[in-house]
Amino acid sequence: RLASLALQPAITPELVQGRVHLKCTYSPPPPEPPVQFRVLWSRLSSSGRREQIQQETTLQLFSYVEMDGANLRLGDTVFCTVTAFRRGSPEQQSLPEDSKGFYAGIKFLPESLEIAEDGKEHVLTVLSTVPIACPGQDDSCKITLQLSTEDLGKSSRVPGPPDIALSACQVDLLPGPCSGSGCAAARVAVTAVTDFAQDGNRVSRLRARPAAPGDALWRAYTPRDVEVTVRDLPTGNCYSFTDPHIITFDGWRYDSHKIGTFLLSRSESRAFEVHVRQWDCGGRRSATTCNCGVAAR
């Protein structure tokens, strides 16, 4: 009968005496006869294999493991495997049941972005799946993440100037109660840089690095980068040339022979405008004006 137990182990994060722990809980067995549990904690190695961290035998319906920064670190994917057996009869045991993998660290939601050069903001959530603990600190308890960007170019091998802009250079993760979605979250807006160049679709990388954390658990941790694909859009053009002929963004053509300073173009969505100055360049025979100056913001 033990072979058919549905233990359904699950991992949740928890602070225990100010230190980050993971808790494995499982469903209770039938009341009789008395049952013990063997709980095996493991983590995924860089090669994708499971490495054993800790094992214990208990009567409790839960088991803890501490994230100590050595055996278990931020960035690890952790599993707990539970087997039930009768006390005094370890040979009569259930089939081992695995929990789902629990990623301990920083997640970006969404995990990747595809945006266009259209000026729209896209919100990226920075989520910590573990509690924020600051031993020895009180009001200033937080984890600050420094944000940076890098353009990877069309082929992800040719670095260039940043193709994305962020609403902030850093975000703070503040302590709070853990829920199903995580333990701490912050948001940053990402916008594609309108570069007025037909440079094709480009890939940029967004990095987050903990800045001088007080908790030793965070000091050697590097969250995974986020890749942002920027879709190139055609750029509009307008012209003012010779004496002067003007072609607007939508292709309307006309001439302007007035003398003075004029507003040539202004954006309704951002701080961008162009002024032109026209002067008399036709001499005595004809009234002709030419561009003699330009100012752009």
From TrEMBL:
Domain VWFD: 236-297
GO CC, any one term: cell surface
UniProt KW keywords: Disulfide bond, Signal
Domain of life: Eukaryota
A Pfam family recorded for this sequence: Ig_VWDE
GO molecular function per UniProt: signaling receptor binding
Signal peptide (from-to): none
PANTHER family per the UniProt record, alphabetical: EGF-LIKE-DOMAIN, MULTIPLE 7, 8 (PTHR14949), VON WILLEBRAND FACTOR D AND EGF DOMAIN-CONTAINING PROTEIN (PTHR14949:SF52)
Name of this protein: VWDE protein
Gene label: Vwde_5
